[in-house]
Amino acid sequence: MDKKILRGSIFGVILALILVSGFAFAQSDIKDGKSDFGSQSAALASPPLSDFIDIKIDDRQNNNASVAYNSKHNEFLVVWEEEVHGGEYAIFGRRVGSTGSTIGPAFPIQHFTNRILLRPDVAYSEKQDEYLVVFYERINANNYDIAVVPVSWDGVPGSGYFIDYDADWDWYPVVAYNSQNDEYLVVWENCISCLGGNLRDINAQRIRASDGMLLSWRNIASSPNIIRRLPDVAYNPARNEYLIAYTRHSSASTDGDIIGVRTDYNMSWPALTEFLITPSGLPPQDGVTLAAGPDEYLAVWTEEHGTKTSIWGRRVQGDGTLHSFFSLANDPGKHRVEPAVAFGDGGRYQVAWREIAGSWDLHGRDVRAGQNSPDGPEYPIDIFPNNQRVPAVACAPVGPCLIAYEDDFPGADYEIRGRLSGYQRVVLPLTLRNH
User: Fold this and answer.
1) Is 103 helix (H, G, I), strand (E, B) or coil?
2) What are the strands, taking DSSP E only, across 141-256?
3) Predicted confidence (pLDDT) per residue in 250-270, tens digit
4) Cβ atoms of 235 and 244 closer than 8 Å
5) How far apart are CA 152 and CA 1, in angstroms?
6) 338-356 pLDDT, tens digit each
7) Among 3, 75, 114, 129, fewest CB within 10 Å belongs to which?
8) Would you tell me how many other CB atoms lie within 10 Å of the CB of residue 419?
9) CB neighbours of residue 217 within 10 Å
10) Tens of pLDDT along 35-58?
11) How many helices (H) and strands (E) does the chain have?
12) What Rg do the C-alpha atoms of the chain give, in angstroms?
């Protein structure tokens, strides 16, 4: 691939005039003085990747980003937790355009003096043209509660409120948007007996998008001495249903399995039946993440084999039918963790994860809807010095995906950065620049 910069040539002008999508992406960039091309073959195998996007760069810790796509304004909202002062964490956000430019400054979504707000997730309502940001607050050492804040499309937070406020440990919330009923479903882990016990449940709460009213609540799964943890949720508009997935341990000492539960939009089914997405008895599985495609879901998770931790995927049909397993990253001696997945960009799933090999790098792979194998080889997302971790992904239906993540470049603390990824676009070379 020719990495020379086109400046005023006739060919460059012609390319600019035939942009089929209106978006120009750069597949060449400089970070810390080095090109991100790697080998020529790696560059050719990768989808178009934008320049690195500095979403929040300061002298504070910025962690656990999440991202949602805004279909009405063709932009993204990235949210994260930020250590404002020592031990004081707030939830912040920033808008990112579909061409990779940041829109306005980062802004606080919820911030209270001497309080600890952690692990945000976000979903977008096109009908209301606003987001719902969900997170948990550490009330004290033995009490964690789930809270939400509506945020307008242009970044103005509304009034926040708790949706679970009791003496248990309620944490790790996720949220999905129901486009048919204009409501959200928030799902979280409820650690009922974290102080010396083994019971952890999965709970869910419906929230009406128009006014924030709490609708039905339901315990998704519970049984004595069973640990259910780290849920995710995806909405299937073809059936007006959700798939909820999580890790289940039969005791604190047993390896985990990935479990799924389907539910109708209002959680009215008399019985919510658990089913195994990964067969019981395999090596430990954890960290499941979900995305919904055309009347199907893609579940992605990690599997530990001692000398390696691999990334696996499986499609779940809308009716619950399970398709074949397939490997996304399974090389000997390598550890991959923290997978993230989203659907869009003309019918593909974008998968990203962290690879631990000396430094921590980000890699990705694509899966087409209806396909039980990856679409092309693994490719680097950010493999530069320092450490990158905890990716989050959101995609436009026909347009780019935004991968947001933590990066400790240039060092000292973690920042929030991102890259756009996407196919079906003409790529124009842009001027190289240092970060």
Assistant:
1) strand
2) 143-152, 161-164, 169-178, 183-191, 200-208, 214-221, 227-236, 241-249
3) 876 678 999 999 999 999 999
4) no
5) 42
6) 999 999 988 999 999 999 9
7) 114
8) 26
9) 13
10) 332 333 343 457 889 999 999 999
11) 2, 30
12) 21
